[in-house]
Amino acid sequence: MKTVIDDYIREEMFPHMWCPGCGNGIVLGAIIRAIDDLKWDRDKIVMISGIGCSSRITGYVDFCSMNTTHGRALPFATGIKMANLDLKVVVVMGDGDCSAIGGNHFIHAARRNIDLTAIIINNMIYGMTGGQYSPLTPTGRFGTTAPYGNIDQAFDLTSLAMAAGASYVARGTVYHVRQSISLMKKALDKKGFSVVEMISDCPISFGKMNKMRTAVEMLKWIKDIAVSKKAWENLSVEERKEKFVIGEFLDIDRPEYNERYNEIIKKAQKMGGNE
Amino acid sequence: MKQKKLVEIYQNNSVKISVDREWCKACGICIEFCPKDVLIPDNQGKPIPENIDACIKCNLCELRCPDFAITVEGVKEKDE
């Protein structure tokens, strides 16, 4: 049987290289279903990724795609969007890619509010390189470079994006996949910088170090730590530890970068007498 | 397009469940989170819709499958 998914993937590349139960595949499915629901012309979609497990995603989709350098997916995407405003640019990054190596690019893409959609697959660890802790590893969780527990505090990526100036910010999980698809649809359709953080599982690197060796155990954990906004308000400070709010956080209209850029071109031409 | 060889199809008069045994990596997500316990693991841990009559076509197994290995579709009675 031919499904929506078969329509959008490079089938010769499958089965994919991700580990059994890896959330990247679930996120890929959600992105494809969201794009299919929007009925976009696939030749106008560009998917860009950096380096890491999640970044292999661009090799599996039948869109225009580009696998760039570590953390630099957003600058490449910015260039592509500015060169051709007709393109829909989707950037898929991992947590290390987006918040550590590409952290500055992330806040500045949000600050410019350029019309891109960033989907961040947050599995809370550097999976590909062997389980080093990332800036999104929760405090107290273990990694191969944090054998006694992580002492750092994790970024709240959604708050960071909101503070930096994004137009749309939401968080989903690989367990709440239906909700995540609708969040992605809104994000993709939004004009301006839109961010969807997807809490994902990594049974091999994160799970192994944290007593959740299977994808099923990890998904159960994700189900437990993800709470709705309403439930969050009723939790005490102690109960909020290692919990995530899921859902939509921000949906506003801010001036988009290319619009302002085109205005400034017109203004300069007028001043130079080249109208 | 390459023809998939290892797709097993299970069907009753309302639902058709296909399992791609080549793509499935036996992570067990579909089996564990099926709300109606339709699926059971075989000796490799890959799903078999043993209890297919209980399927309510919620498609959660299909949506949560990281490997795009399981699909659920409704069967129209006219097709029979």
From TrEMBL, chain A:
Q: Name one GO molecular function term.
A: thiamine pyrophosphate binding
Q: Does the record's keyword annotation contain Ubl conjugation?
A: no
Transmembrane domains' residue ranges = none
**Which SUPFAM superfamilies does the protein's record reference?**
Thiamin diphosphate-binding fold (THDP-binding)
Give the Thiamine pyrophosphate enzyme TPP-binding domain ranges: 51-197
- Matching InterPro entries, A to Z? 2-oxoacid:Fd_oxidoreductase, THDP-binding, TPP_enzyme_TPP-bd
**GO BP terms in the entry:** cellular respiration; small molecule metabolic process
CDD domains, alphabetized: TPP_OGFOR
Sorted UniProt keywords: Oxidoreductase
> Can you tell which superkingdom this protein's organism belongs to?
Bacteria
Q: Which PANTHER family match?
A: 2-OXOGLUTARATE OXIDOREDUCTASE SUBUNIT KORB-RELATED, 2-OXOGLUTARATE SYNTHASE SUBUNIT KORB
User: What name does UniProt use for this protein?
Assistant: 2-oxoacid:ferredoxin oxidoreductase subunit beta
Native source organism of the sequence: Candidatus Infernicultor aquiphilus
From TrEMBL, chain B:
Database matches in Gene3D superfamilies:
3.30.70.20, 3.30.70.3270
Q: Which organism is it from?
A: Candidatus Infernicultor aquiphilus
Instruction: Show the GO MF annotations.
Output: 4 iron, 4 sulfur cluster binding; metal ion binding
What InterPro entries does this protein's entry cite?
4Fe4S_Fe-S-bd, 4Fe4S_Fe_S_CS, Fe-S_Ferredoxin
Q: Keywords for this entry?
A: 4Fe-4S, Iron, Iron-sulfur, Metal-binding
Q: What is this protein called?
A: Ferredoxin
Per its UniProt entry, which superkingdom is the organism in? Answer: Bacteria
The reply on keyword Iron is: yes
Q: Which SUPFAM superfamilies match?
A: 4Fe-4S ferredoxins
Boundaries of each 4Fe-4S ferredoxin-type domain copy?
15-44, 45-75
